[in-house]
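FORM 12-B: Structure-to-Sequence Request
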């Protein structure tokens, strides 16, 4: 949608839907009402999630882009921890408690996102140049506005710079206009192997991430068979640990993602490989946004995000099947999926550390 209708407009409508679905979930009277509203909430989240990465790619300078992505991930992890603390406050355990109050609190960030989108969010200048051929005069106003926000001594764009941008934008638009928002284009030519590899990688991210978050409390409860710790405490502890450990991993990514020795591709490859090895060790012990052109960027991210949701949907059934291999059996499945993603990352032919797209 955002490749056709713009980043800002899509973000606003997605935030509206996210708030409405989240807020009215509080007042659900039966299972089917709740199911429909949570599906709408998930749909809106599937719109918002790729947009944040897309905006970062298009408005943050190349030299700062990688580290800015890490900051976004830290905010994501922080949000998870806040939700866990709210859950501890409102819920007795994962089966009982004031879930309506919890849903009410978790719907408020969408309202805040809607407010800030209206008040502060501007359309991506790169999108307006590369994917539209109207209102180009606004591009210069937006770029000058961004310049003043970052540097009070910013000098407005000169006429020759504006002309160069228009020429570049027109060339980009003519080259990409037939591809704007087309899912079919993701499976053509040089984009085909990229799309297939990224689909596997995104599937793996969702499968392993939510798998660990769901399965770790269950496994900890099984190991806590002597009731040494409170049942509800073990449940929340497993989810908290799954979220908190993102901070040290994000710290490692912060120092490697822009390092010439590693870059995007090697960082992902070693991360998937390490994840595969560690998950396999747990089993044994028993105790991108930059790779697509502007016209296809959010379409590609959206497709891969949808595939990752499929990973999250299939994860419980597959993970519970792996319990046949032991209490930590699901980690064998996580290891296999992560290893496959490491292979897909290795196959990708280029690194986007120096990408100009």
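FORM 12-B RESPONSE
SEQUENCE OUT:
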């Amino acid at each position: 949608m955002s490749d056709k209708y713009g980043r800002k407009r899509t973000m606003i409508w997605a935030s509206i839907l996210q708030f409405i679905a989240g807020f009215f979930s509080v007042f659900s009277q039966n299972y089917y009402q709740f199911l429909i509203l949570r599906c709408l909430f998930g749909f809106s989240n599937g719109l918002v999630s790729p947009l944040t990465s897309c905006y970062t790619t298009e408005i943050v300078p190349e030299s700062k882009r990688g580290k800015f992505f890490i900051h976004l991930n830290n905010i994501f992890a922080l949000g998870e921890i806040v939700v866990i603390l709210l859950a501890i406050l409102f819920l007795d355990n994962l089966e009982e408690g004031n879930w309506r109050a919890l849903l009410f609190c978790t719907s408020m960030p969408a309202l805040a996102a809607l407010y800030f989108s209206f008040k502060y969010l501007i359309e991506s200048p790169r999108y307006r140049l590369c994917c539209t051929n109207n209102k180009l005069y606004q591009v210069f106003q937006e770029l000058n506005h961004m310049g003043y926000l970052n540097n009070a001594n910013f000098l407005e764009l000169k006429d020759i710079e504006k002309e160069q941008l228009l020429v570049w934008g027109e060339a980009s638009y003519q080259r990409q206009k037939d591809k704007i928002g087309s899912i079919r284009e993701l499976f053509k030519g040089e984009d085909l192997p990229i799309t297939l590899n990224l689909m596997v990688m995104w599937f793996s991210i969702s499968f392993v991430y939510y798998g660990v978050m769901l399965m770790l409390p269950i496994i900890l409860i099984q190991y806590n068979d002597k009731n040494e710790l409170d049942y509800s405490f073990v449940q929340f502890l497993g989810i908290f640990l799954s979220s908190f450990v993102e901070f040290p991993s994000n710290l490692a990514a912060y120092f490697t993602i822009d390092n010439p020795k590693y870059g995007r591709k090697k960082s992902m490859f070693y991360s998937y490989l390490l994840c595969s090895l560690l998950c396999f060790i747990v089993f044994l012990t028993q105790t991108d946004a930059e790779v697509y052109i502007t016209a296809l960027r959010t379409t590609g991210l959206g497709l891969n995000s949808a595939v990752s949701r499929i990973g999250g949907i299939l994860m419980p059934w597959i993970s519970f099947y792996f319990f046949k291999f032991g209490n930590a059996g699901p980690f064998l499945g996580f290891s296999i999926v992560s290893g496959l993603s490491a292979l897909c990352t290795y196959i990708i032919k280029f690194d986007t550390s120096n990408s100009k797209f």
